[in-house]
Structure formats: structure tokens, C-alpha cells
Amino acid sequence: METEPLPVTTADGVATVVINRPARKNAITQAMWVELASHVNRLSSEPGVRVIVLRGAGQDFSAGADISEFDTLRGDADSARAYEATNSAAFAALRNCTIPVIAAIRGICFGGGLGLAAACDLRIATPDALFAVPAARLGLAYPQDAMGDIVWAAGPQMARYLTYTAGRINAQAALSAGFLLEIVEALHFDTRVGEIARTIAENAPLSVRASKAAIRSALSHDVGEIALAQAAGDATFLSDDYAEGRAAFAGRRTPVFKGR
């Protein structure tokens, strides 16, 4: 299985992407950064996919970038900038994905792994999860765009603590900072992640996409994003799904949404 570093499975509208290098605590190679961005961009445009779950194989989410590559692929300023561009493309793919993305976090969630989680919409973790941004221990600056995700997800105070000290925080601290939606015991973790993902997948896709766009515009205050969010909301008014939702409510039945 580990020969496939980023396997993707899809069922009932839920696509699951697995960071699959458990022997290396799911450290991410440069090739994997590129592939991850490609997977997310592709899945966001597939009509049958309504939500993405990003998780790590085994006991950890991800230790972040594979540092063993740095001497060869990040050994000087030019190669470091090129490498960082692949990081940023993966963060951007998650951040800009038109459908919701859930980070299912067990164990270690460090560095670029934390950046990936921060770029997701929802984050759920087991009690043993640990979070850190060790860039200051490596003499590197964390990517500016990814820092924005961390500030939004955990707040500026926690972002400062994580990056200035390179210290670790546990799941409870991450929950208190607002970084996590829930902490779920390991025994029930997969069930809870699946429950949330399926609930999203069963709701009206156009409505969910419009909500994601509206939330993004509310955070960014960007005029272009506000216009896109307004257009996405307007598109729901004449949609077949809106008619289906009203009919299902009147008929006291479960709606079946088609995303159109």
C-alpha cells in the first residue's frame, strides 16, 4: 500500500485522500505536494464528489515536509523558493477547493502537515494529536500564505506561539484555540468523521458550495470573492435542488439532491 503515497477512494459522495507513508510518519515528498494539489483540484470538479476527507495512514496525520530531501531539493535560495511553491500550491488547492474538506487528524500534525490541516474547512482529532510548526528550529520561514491559514484557524496568538517557540500543543489546546472542531476518542473517530462527511454529502451541493464561498468572502472582505459568493447564492434560487428541498419538506420525506 505504501507504494501508493496518496491513494484516493470515493464512495457515496465522499472522497478520501490518504497521506500514505506511515513508516516516515507520513512525511510529504516534493512529488507528493504536487500530486496532492492535483488530486484536490480534480476532485473538486467531479460532479459525484461532495466532500473530501484528508487523513494520514497509520497513527499519524503528517510530520510535514520530508526533511531528508532538503539538501538536494532545497539546498539554495532558488531551489528553496521552487520547493516552497509546491507547498503553497497544495495549501491553495485545499483553501480554494469549492467543496468542503475535512482534516481527520491522529497523532503528529507538524509543519506542512499542520499547514494542510489549517487549509481545510473542518478539523477533527483524536486525544493523542500533537501540533507544532518547527520552522524556527530549521532556520526557515513558514510560507506566508500558509501562515494566513494558521492565523484564521487558530488565531494570531496561537500562531505566534507555534511559530516563535516551535513548541508543541496537544489536542485540548488546539480545541481551545478554535483550531479543532471536535476531539473524538480513537474508538469512535472514524465513525464520527464518516458521519460528518456523509451529512455534508447528503445536503444540497449548491447550497454547501454557496456557504463555503460566503464564509470565505466574510473572512477575506475581498470584493471579488464577495461577488462570487453572491452569485453562488443566487444560483440556488432557480435550482432543481431548491425545488426538491421544498417538495421533500412538503411531502415529509428525505430530499435527494442532484447538485443542479
Brief rundown of the structure:
This protein has helices at residues 30-44, 70-73, 77-96, 112-119, 135-138, 144-154, 156-165, 171-176, 186-202, 205-220, 223-235, 240-250; strands at 8-11, 14-19, 51-56, 101-105, 108-110, 122-125, 130-132, 168-170, 182-183.
Walk me through what this model shows:
It is a single chain. This protein has 260 residues and is of the alpha/beta class. It has 12 helices and 9 strands. The protein has helices at residues 30-44, 70-73, 77-96, 112-119, 135-138, 144-154, 156-165, 171-176, 186-202, 205-220, 223-235, 240-250, and strands spanning 8-11, 14-19, 51-56, 101-105, 108-110, 122-125, 130-132, 168-170, 182-183. A 6-stranded mixed beta sheet has the order 1-2-3-4-6-9, with helices on both faces. It has a 3-stranded mixed beta sheet with strand order 5-7-8. Strand 2 (14-19), helix 1 (30-44) and strand 3 form a beta-alpha-beta unit. Helix 1 (30-44) runs parallel beside helix 3 (77-96), helix 4 (112-119) crosses helix 6 (144-154) and helix 10 runs antiparallel to helix 11. The model has no long low-confidence stretch (mean pLDDT 92).
